[in-house]
Amino acid sequence: MKNSIAFLLLFSLCAAVFGQKTNPSAAKFTTAGRTVVVYTTAETGDRKIAETARLKFVEKRQPTEGEISVFVNPAKKFQTFLGIGGAFTDAAAETFAKIPKEKQREILDAYFSPAKGIGYTLGRLTIHSSDFSSASYTYIAEGDRELKTFSIDHDRQFRLPFIKQAMAAAGGRLTLFASPWSPPAFMKSNKSMLKGGRLLDEFYQPWANYFVKYIRAYEKEGIPIWGVTIQNEPMATQTWESCIFTAAEERDFLKNNLGPTFAKNGLGNKKIIIWDHNRDLITQRVDTILGDPEAAKYVWGIGYHWYEPWSGGEPMYENVEQVHASYPDKNLIFTEGTVESFDPAKYRLWAFGERYGKSMINDFNNGTVGWTDWNLLLDETGGPNHVGNFCFAPIHADTRTGELIYTSSYYYIGHFSKFIRPGARRIAGAASRSQLLTTSFENPDGRIATVVMNTSDKEVKYFLSIGTDAAEATIPAHAIQTLVY
């Protein structure tokens, strides 16, 4: 009996000790011996995600009113990080195919290598065409309600090769979700893929079956589909591919058709994302769908975009916060954002990057688990786009010369995607002055990444403060930093 008790005590002790060694985040965080490596991107100079300082924590028990601090509390943990990435549109894939092989390699490394680039781990696909395609198309013959002609052959020329190369560059760790812009024309009230219209009642089930066909076809190509959104921008009548779903219509399609169809076809593990539109109307949509238990059981999360300030004003970040507070068991994911109204004279505009940084920090602090940019790559015209809706991307390729143009957006996104890895947990953090924005995550290996953004016109000295220790840092005007420790 004594031997048994002794064995149990020894076993418990070993488990505790070795458990701490294999899971750094399980132990209480300490700054002792930790070096803070600072990476900076600034508007002035040539520093772009460049190591600019190495700092040490020193004892500092009480900040003063005159000092500026970024406070981090690793003991308070929140959502688990899914990833950051962009969209594999037809425009991106067609542009990629038109540039020299060495430039293609540069693009793949720039986006998907965590060592050579910014380490994207998330990707969005379009189910057949969107505005960022050279023309409208579907995967079936018009009028084929039985889907007998379903084929993804269209995607074999550009999109499938691009996705497969990106997956390889990311080391196989690429989470992909897909979104439709419009059902085929014959399934809709306006008999067109463009300019809104509604999915006719008689085609709810064939359209749900179409999702299944798409997932199976892509997975047969070795491209796993992690999830889907039900409809891109379901409250927008656009000049391009679009389809209106009211909140009640999306709820009913989900609970009566899409959800049961996935379950019936062995796809119950696929994540279903609702809304996929702006922050402004998000609460009404979410309340309608998640207020119905039969619909809510199929919902993994809520997707949203950033285009809502139609007449000026600030983005409605508080709506995202409210949804997270109301439905903490559902996930938030940013599914699309881009800088509109392409103008090549604005390639270097610093405000583009700052728009991304501000949105990402606020979105993560309000509970968002993943963040997806729009087109990965566009050409020198901000396209191709079959309706003239030209936009910016983080990287543009001049298909005439092969030149790659990196905008400030690329670097601002990289300050998050390169240093915050899938499985990280957001931890508590706040700045003591409004000119600094900040968010922090603890990675699976126990290292913390704290992003700090300076929106002011002046350099700011601040303390990175954890408990009774702090490291003194400096951030240039209109700059973003990631502090890794």
Can you offer a commentary on this structure?
By secondary structure, this protein is α/β, with parallel strands linked by helices. It has 2 domains: 34-79 and 426-484, Golgi alpha-mannosidase II (Immunoglobulin-like), CATH 2.60.40; 82-419, Alpha-Beta Barrel (TIM Barrel). The chain has 11 helices and 21 strands. The chain has helices at 2-22, 90-97, 101-112, 159-169, 204-220, 247-264, 282-290, 293-296, 317-326, 350-365, 408-417, and strands at 35-42, 50-56, 58-59, 69-80, 83-88, 122-127, 175-180, 227-229, 271-278, 301-305, 331-336, 368-375, 377-379, 395-397, 404-406, 425-431, 436-442, 448-454, 460-466, 469-475, 479-484. The strands form 3 sheets. The chain has a 10-stranded mixed beta sheet with strand order 2-1-21-18-17-16-4-19-20-3, covered by helices on one side. A hairpin with a 4-residue loop joins strand 16 and strand 17 (436-442). Helix 3 crosses helix 4 (159-169) and helix 10 runs parallel beside helix 11. The longest helix has 21 residues, at 2-22. It is globular, with a radius of gyration of 24 Å. The model is unreliable at 1-26 (pLDDT under 50).
